[in-house]
Amino acid sequence: MLTYPKIDPVLIHIGPVSVHWYGVMYLLGFIAGLWLAKVRARKPGSGWTVDQVDDLLVYIVLGIILGGRIGYVFIYHIDLFFQNPLYLFKIWQGGMSFHGGFIGVTVALWLFARKHNKKWIDVGDFTAPLIPPGLAFGRLGNFINGELWGRTTDVPWGMVFPNAGNLPRHPSQLYQFAGEGVLLFILMWWFSSKPRPRYAVTAMFMIGYGAFRTMAEFFRQPDAQLGFLAFDFLTMGMLLSVPMVVIGTALMIYAYQKGELRQKPNKL
Q1: Region of 18 on the Ramachandran plot (φ > 0 left; ψ -120 to 50 alpha; else beta)
Q2: Distance of CA 244 to the CA centre of its chain
Q3: pTM (2 d.p.)
Q4: What is the pLDDT of residues 225-244, one digit of tens each?
Q5: Residue 25 burial by CB count (10 A; 0-12/13-18/19+): exposed, middle or buried?
Q6: Does pLDDT of 91 surpass 80?
Q7: Secondary structure, 3-state, the chain
Q8: pLDDT of residue 25 exceeding 70
Q9: Which contacts of 116-123 are long-range, i.e. CB under 8 A and separated by 24 or more positions?
Q10: Mind listing the pLDDT tens digit for each residue in 182-215?
Q11: Alpha-carbon distance 199 to 252, whole Å?
C-alpha cells in the first residue's frame, strides 16, 4: 500500500484570498491548450490567426466553467442545489462534470463559429486535440483534493484517502490522468497530424474519451448519492460515456464515407 501524499488544497493565502490547487490546475490546462492552439495556428495554411485563438480561448473557458459546473450540480448533486442554490457557484470546493463541460464547449464553439464565419465542425476538429492536457491537469487537481477516489483494492499501489475510510483504494484519479490526459493526447496528436476528413478528429476524441472514461469507471468509486445505477456495475460516468463512443463511431463512419479530406492536417 502506498501512502497518499496529502497536500493542502490551498496553495497560498494572499490576504483574505485563498489560491486553491484545483484552480491552478485548471489554469495550467488552459495555458497548455492556448499554447498548443497558437502553435497550430502559426502553421502555414492553418486557416487560423493568433487573434482568433485568443478569442476561442474565451469561449472555451466560459463553456467549460458554465457547462462543467452546471452539469456537475444538476447531474450529481441536484439535492444540494435545492438545499442551497448558491452551491452552484462554489467551484473552489471542487466539482466539475466533463460531460457538462463537453456540452458547454460544444455550444461555445458553435457561437464562436457563427461569429468568425467558420464551419462549426472545423472549429471542433481544431479544438479537440487541445482538450486532453486540460483533462490531465484537472485529474491531478482531483487527486490533490483527495476526491473522486477509486474502489477498495488490495493492489500494491492502493491508497487510503482522507474521508474515504481506512481501506486502500485505487488512485482512479491517476488512472484517468493517464488515460483521458496522457494517452488521449498522444492519440489525438497522432491522429490529427495526418490529413483526415471533416468530423474525423472530433469523432476520434469522442471515441477515445468515452472509451478511456468507461474503463476508468470500473475502478472509480461511484458517487455516494447515486451509487450503481444498474447491475451492480453501471455508473453515471458509464451511462454518459458509452453514448460518446457510439456517436463518435457513427460520426467517424460518416466522415470517411463522405470523404471530404482537408487540404492540410491539423498538426500540433
Answers
A1: beta
A2: 13
A3: 0.89
A4: 778 888 888 999 999 999 99
A5: buried
A6: no
A7: CECCCCCCCEEEEECCEEEEHHHHHHHHHHHHHHHHHHHHHCCCCCCCCHHHHHHHHHHHHHHHHHHHHHHHHHHHCHHHHHHCHHHHHCHHHCCCCHHHHHHHHHHHHHHHHHHHCCCHHHHHHHHHHHHHHHHHHHHHHHHHHCCCCECECCCCCCECCCCCCCCCECCHHHHHHHHHHHHHHHHHHHHHCCCCECCHHHHHHHHHHHHHHHHHHCCECCCCCCCCCECCCECHHHHHHHHHHHHHHHHHHHHHHHCCECCCCCCC
A8: yes
A9: 116/52, 116/55, 119/198, 121/198, 121/199, 121/202, 122/47, 122/198, 123/56
A10: 999 999 999 998 889 999 999 999 999 999 999 9
A11: 7
In whole angstroms, give the CA distance from residue 253 to residue 151. 36
Among 110, 107, 135, CA closest to 123: 110
pLDDT in tens, 245-257: 999 999 999 999 9
CB 81 within 8 A of CB 43: no
Measured in degrees and rounded to the nearest 5, phi and psi for residue 140 equal -65, -35
Give the Cα separation of 194 and 156 in Å (integer): 40
Q: Is 100 exposed, middle or buried (0-12, 13-18, 19+ CB in 10 A)?
A: buried
The model's confidence at residue 263, banded by pLDDT at 50, 70 and 90, is: very low
Q: What are the grid coordinates assigned to 71, written together?
A: 452539469
Q: Which amino acid, residue 204?
A: M
